[in-house]
Specification:
single chain, four-stranded mixed sheet, globular, binds zinc ion
């Protein structure tokens, strides 16, 4: 899949009425509407991240080491990729940090704007192995690298009122997502929309970029589709994994990931760090 084919899949979001606010997402070059300053969002995220570290029970053992190890590889590979491509590194202002939260019930992970990452111990059963964990982390990191929260916050400034109306009209779908996660930090996370679903284009872009980042970092991205299949299997039970609540899945998604896998392996092999 080349960039053009990716764009034809996700479509092109247009933001013609405020041309100065137009930017493009890295690699996919999907057009984005971004008017909220990234620095502002990053500093808010960092503050909330600190509060979460105080509130939640953190794990500090070899599992966290593995998360940091995967993350460090991705940080370096992402920066190196943009350096070698002669493009601006979208992570230049990131202050990467990783925590593992002790909560077996929550099968989720997220990456806040600016590279503040959390993995819940519950998702480790689904990721099963290093490549699986790299797939989930790559996806979450991709949301941050592609500045999806900046996009959402920017739209929020324009569409704030109508979003609230939509939420009420749709039976509070966004609030339901928050409720099903059962987290006491959910209020904090909601402030940034971390636990709310990204839109379909952003999800697809995070799948695509996440696989690229994992591949550049030397992980086996053939595991990615297996994660989604394991999620799907779990979803047949009573309570779907949170990762699926916030990352609505579909067979179409699994199909796309399958289609992308070989081309990404070929076009984005493990990158040598100079
Ligand atoms: Zn996602």
């Amino acid at each position: 899949m080349n960039r053009r084919k990716f764009l034809s899949y996700v479509g092109c979001s247009c933001c013609g009425f405020l041309m100065n606010s137009c930017a493009t997402a890295p690699i996919t070059e999907r057009r984005q509407f971004k008017i909220v300053p990234e620095a502002k969002l990053n500093s808010q995220a960092a503050q909330i991240y600190e509060k979460i570290k105080e509130k939640e029970k953190l794990i500090n053992d070899s599992r966290l080491d593995e998360i940091k190890n995967i993350g460090n590889k991705m940080e370096n590979s992402i920066s190196e990729y943009f350096l070698q491509s002669n493009k601006n590194d979208p992570t230049i202002n990131f202050d990467w940090e990783y925590i593992l939260i002790d909560n077996k019930k929550i099968k989720n992970a997220w990456c806040m704007p600016g590279g503040k990452i959390a993995v819940y111990s519950g998702i480790l059963k689904i990721t099963e192995n290093t490549n699986g964990l790299a797939a989930v982390m790559g996806h979450e990191i991709a949301h941050a690298v592609a500045k999806h929260s900046v996009e959402r916050a920017s739209r929020g400034m324009v569409l704030n009122v109508s979003t609230q109306v939509i939420d009420i009209l749709s039976g509070g779908k966004l609030s339901t997502v928050n409720r099903t996660t059962g987290m006491d930090t959910v209020g904090l996370l909601s402030q940034l929309g971390i636990m709310n679903p990204f839109n379909r284009k952003q999800e697809s872009e995070a799948d695509y970029l996440g696989m690229i980042f994992a591949s550049l970092s030397g992980f086996d991205i053939r595991e990615t589709v297996k994660i989604w299949e394991r999620m799907k299997k779990l979803n047949k039970g009573k309570a779907p994994p949170e990762f699926m609540s916030t990352h609505p899945s579909a067979d179409n998604r699994i199909k796309k990931i399958n289609e992308w896998t070989n081309e990404i392996i070929l076009n984005y092999p493990p990158i040598n760090i100079s």
